[in-house]
Structure formats: structure tokens, C-alpha cells
Amino acid sequence: MVKATGGEKNDVPELVQFGAAVREQRKARGYSQEAFGDACGIDRSYMGGIERGQHNLALVNIMKIISALEMQPSEFFKALDKPAAKSSKRHQDR
Predict the structure, then answer these.
(1) Rounded distance between C-alpha atoms, residue 41 and residue 39, angstroms
(2) Of 21, 35, 68, 69, which has fewest CB within 10 angstroms of its CB?
(3) How far apart are CA 53 and CA 57, in angstroms?
């Protein structure tokens, strides 16, 4: 499994952004990290790493998280669209 460690130059922006979105949605629904991890079937400490952008998740775990948030994948990822578009623009400018 690929890991991005917190606060280092090798942070993967997409993982950090995904983790921040998970944290925001979890808190909006009133879940503690432990309760949310239980709802997803993911250990609390691993969930903390997800929220910090330290874990590159398998699709099955992404879907567990989105399901526990009671969201559709398109709804969850819609919030991530705009920053991704900025990233694409940077590649076009090169």
C-alpha cells in the first residue's frame, strides 16, 4: 500500500483532499472517528490516517466510506471536481 506521510514534501494532494472531504462529511453527520470507522468497517486509527491523507485507499474502502456517509459516489466526488480541474490546467500550461 502506498502511504503519503503528513507534513512532508511527498504528500499526495489528492489523498489529502480526499481525506479532508471525508472528515468534513463525517463531522457534518455527527460521527466520531471511532463510530464512523465502525460504520465503515475500518479501524479508527486507519480512518485517522485516511483523513490526514496518509493512505492510498482501495476502491472497496472508498465505497464503504461513501456508503456510510449515505451519499452517492457522484455526490461525494462532485466537491473534488474543481481542484482537479485546476491541476489539469497546470498540466496544460507546461
Answers:
(1) 6
(2) 35
(3) 10
Task: Say what the pTM is.
Answer: 0.75
* H/E segment holding residue 39: helix 33-40
CB 1 within 8 A of CB 61: no
Q: What is the pLDDT of residues 18-60, one digit of tens each?
A: 999 999 999 999 999 999 999 999 999 999 999 999 999 999 9
What does each C-alpha distance from 81 to 24, 43, 87 come to in angstroms?
A: 16, 28, 10
- Reading the block at residue 92, the C-alpha cell is 496544460
Q: How far is CA 76 from CA 15, 46, 85, in A?
A: 14, 20, 16
